[in-house]
Write a sequence for this structure.
């Protein structure tokens, strides 16, 4: 069994699910948070830090054997002003820099592995091109932030750490993330594809996301970047059709025009309109098995078993 595991960004959707799973498996989990809180679970220990101020509780690394780096301001929370773009980038890069600086000067840890989040946005808008982990980075802000994120994480190789970067597609959960927002117009009876609808939309079930982080922690043959998306990748139109079916609806409305999304969301519309057709071959060849490789089964599990279906 691994030693204690330090998680940054532990209060997010993935961080909370990972924490619960790790604790259930008997691990000790360390959280880095911005506000001081007390845990009632003796195996969950919380420590404070301030990424932008450059402060961190040095005790957070004591006895730790691996780091899961999820920290980062929410991409979709606020408009992408110049100031916000800087915050989004530095919350990801300065945070891991703080961890590495602490590892350099501390001897009371056994950290050998860092598993970090990254984004499929690394590739930018690439149309129908099949993208593997060796494909070049694309253009646009989502690509730029992912490139800088991964570069900061890769600095850990100078400390002889095993680095695994999981380039995540849309993580599907019924309560948090993108799915509840995408479901709102569907449940209201107004499902529609976004933009042209032909843009590829990588996705992954939250259960597979958690399992993949655990797999990366334990599988020492894994190194470098991996596309964290299910094999059954779909276009936006296909996604909305399958989602509508899960709620016993039909996609009958015209597509929401790209220009309307740009007027409404500004530069943030990049998230909805970019096309990223990713390959899952590398993660499959590592031996990882998806519980939900196809979207229909994933949405059936999420919608039909966790939320009462909405009928006409």
């Amino acid at each position: 069994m691994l030693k204690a595991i330090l998680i940054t960004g532990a209060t997010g959707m993935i961080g909370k699910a990972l924490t619960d799973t790790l604790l259930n498996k008997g691990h000790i989990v360390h959280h880095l948070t911005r506000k001081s809180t007390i845990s009632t679970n003796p195996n969950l220990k919380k420590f404070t830090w301030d990424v932008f101020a450059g402060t961190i509780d040095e005790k957070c690394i004591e006895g730790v054997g691996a780091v899961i780096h999820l920290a980062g301001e929410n991409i979709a929370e606020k408009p992408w002003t110049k100031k916000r773009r800087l915050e989004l980038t530095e919350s990801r890069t300065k945070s891991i820099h703080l961890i590495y600086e602490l590892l350099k000067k501390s001897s009371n840890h056994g950290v050998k592995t860092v598993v970090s989040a990254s984004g499929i946005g690394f590739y930018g808008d690439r149309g129908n091109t099949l993208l593997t982990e060796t494909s070049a980075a694309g253009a646009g802000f989502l690509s730029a932030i992912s490139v800088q994120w991964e570069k900061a994480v890769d600095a850990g190789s100078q400390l002889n750490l095993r680095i695994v970067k999981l380039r995540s597609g849309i993580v599907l959960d019924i309560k948090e993330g993108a799915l509840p927002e995408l479901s709102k117009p569907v449940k209201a009876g107004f499902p529609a594809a976004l933009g042209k609808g032909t843009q590829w939309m990588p996705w992954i079930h939250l259960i597979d996301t958690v399992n993949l982080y655990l797999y990366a922690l334990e599988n020492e043959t894994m190194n470098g970047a991996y596309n964290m998306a299910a094999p059954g990748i779909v276009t936006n139109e296909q996604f909305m059709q399958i989602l509508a079916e899960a709620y016993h609806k039909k996609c009958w409305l015209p597509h929401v025009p790209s220009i309307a999304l740009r007027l409404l969301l500004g530069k943030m519309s990049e998230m909805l309109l970019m096309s990223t057709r990713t390959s899952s071959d590398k993660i499959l060849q590592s031996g990882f098995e998806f519980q939900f490789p196809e979207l229909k089964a994933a949405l059936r599990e999420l919608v039909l078993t966790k939320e009462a279906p909405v009928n006409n």
Summary: Residues 123 and 136 are 7 Å apart (CA to CA). Residues 308-312 have pLDDT under 50 and may be disordered.
